[in-house]
Amino acid sequence: MAGRFRFSFGPWNIHEGSDPFGPTVRKSVSFRKKLGMYKKLGFDAVQFHDDDAVPEMGKLTPAQIVSRAKAVRRALEGQGLVAEFVAPRLWEDPLTIDGGYTANDPKARRYARDRTRRALDIADALGTNLMVLWLAREGTYIREAKDSKLAVDRLAEAVNDMLSYSPRIRIAIEPKPNEPMDQAYIPTTGHAIALGMLTSDPSRVGVNIETAHAILAGLDPSDEMGFALAHDKLWTVHLNDQNGLKFDQDKSFGSVDLRRAFNQVRILDKYDFCKRGEFVGLDVKAMRTQKDAVASKHLSNSRTVFLRLLKLSRKLSQKKIDDMVKRRDYEELDMYIMDALLAK
What we know:
Elements: E1 7-9, H1 31-41, E2 45-49, H2 50-53, H3 62-78, E3 82-87, H4 106-126, E4 130-134, E5 139-140, H5 148-165, E6 170-174, E7 183-184, H6 189-197, E8 205-210, H7 211-216, H8 221-230, E9 234-239, H9 258-270, E10 280-282, H10 297-315, H11 318-327, H12 330-341
Parallel strand pairs: 1-2, 1-10, 2-3, 4-6, 6-8, 8-9, 9-10
Antiparallel strand pairs: 5-7
Helix pairs in contact: 3-4, 4-5, 8-9, 9-10, 11-12
């Protein structure tokens, strides 16, 4: 338990505050200005959707996309930053209204394949070998709309295309049980790992576990992380918090359930999560009530909570814990953890 953690977030985490029930409430912040905020907030890496790096990429040739991505890499280097991963943003195009890789329409599936290849080009140009795959609309609103067996076959075929197109890429599937679709085909960590086993190179397919997504599936995030670690498949994380089984809230890490956050920190530290250069990623949104000048506190606060919980966890006596476990005195262990969290 002595690893050094480095942190990342995506530019979408500094946003204007719109939600399904209201318009924007803050001014837009330029991408360049956002890059200048990373180091000041204590972060070392940038998470990207493909069109975060190359806006309006659908209007550009593949060569133009690569050229613009290389310019972004130079901007990152100028700020002392690196790209952690690139994710294809498939869910916003009208063509993917019924999914991309699993769409019934062959035209939509071709679009998803070609867009993903461009995202892989961007990843290469940015200098990262990690792609995160959030399968946002790969599911159904009604069961009869799609063949679930065929859908999984098509997802495996899509991942195979990525692995073949970019021989150095690693794919981290980000599972989520619902939203925007009623039911997703890859809802949990176990599903994501199992999908990887159907591909041409399972060694290059892992997972990205998001706190809120695990909670929405009725699961404990630290247990999901442990499952992935047991398979050596936890390649990045999206830490945040979630208040109940509702829409994906992306609340600041630890702001709802501090003990749940503590256990995520503890398992990441216990198994030296960052030993191969991985980043602790955040996917948190500022409250809509935040004014422009303080609309980045959710990021610095989340990082601070992680580091304080890390310090707390490392202060615990493993000898005492082992003794309580041996005696099966879980009430005493429960109070030991509560005392620590309450700074008694």
